Amino acid sequence: MRERLCLEVERLGLSAVIMGSRGFGAEKRGSDGKLGSVSDYCVHHCVCPVVVVRNPDDKDGGSGEPVVTIKEAEVEEEASKG
Fold first, then answer.
1. Which pLDDT does position 52 carry in this prediction?
2. Which InterPro entries does UniProt cross-reference here (predicted)?
3. Which residues contact residue 80 at a Cβ distance below 8 angstroms, ignoring those fewer than 6 apart?
4. In this predicted structure, what is the pLDDT of residue 58?
5. Cα-flanking dihedrals φ and ψ of residue 70, to 5°?
6. What are the domain boundaries of the chain?
7. What is the DSSP string of 13-60?
8. How many CB atoms lie within 10 A of CB 9?
9. What span, in angstroms and rounded, lies between the C-alpha atoms of 23 and 73?
10. Phi and psi of 36, rounded to 5°?
11. Which residues pair with 40 in a beta bridge?
12. What is the pLDDT of residues 4-59, one digit of tens each?
């Protein structure tokens, strides 16, 4: 599923992806990170910038402020070097 999502993003030529994360994959993996498995995969493998928005729950301190992770596409960085 997550591989297919990244392939479709590339096929459609999207300029950015905005997705949510509940962080269940991070809990299962015992990761300290806040991203679930699908959003983590997309951040590292999609060809465009990926914005992951996650609302903190009570166990994260309950500040009420959304947690946002942004990753610029490495393709754009390589293109600017050349």
1. 86
2. PHOS32/34, Rossmann-like_a/b/a_fold, UspA
3. none
4. 43
5. -125, 135
6. 2-81
7. T-S-EEEE---HHHHHHT-SSS--HHHHHHHHH-SS-EEEEE---GGG
8. 19
9. 22
10. -75, 175
11. none
12. 999 999 999 999 999 988 766 666 665 556 677 888 889 899 999 998 887 666 45
What pLDDT does residue 49 have? Answer: 92
How far from 78 is each of 38, 70, 82, CA to CA, in Å?
A: 25, 18, 7
Are 39 and 73 contacting, i.e. CB atoms less than 8 angstroms apart?
no
pLDDT recorded at residue 8: 95
Taking the C-alpha atoms of residue 45 and residue 64, their distance in angstroms, rounded to an integer, is: 29
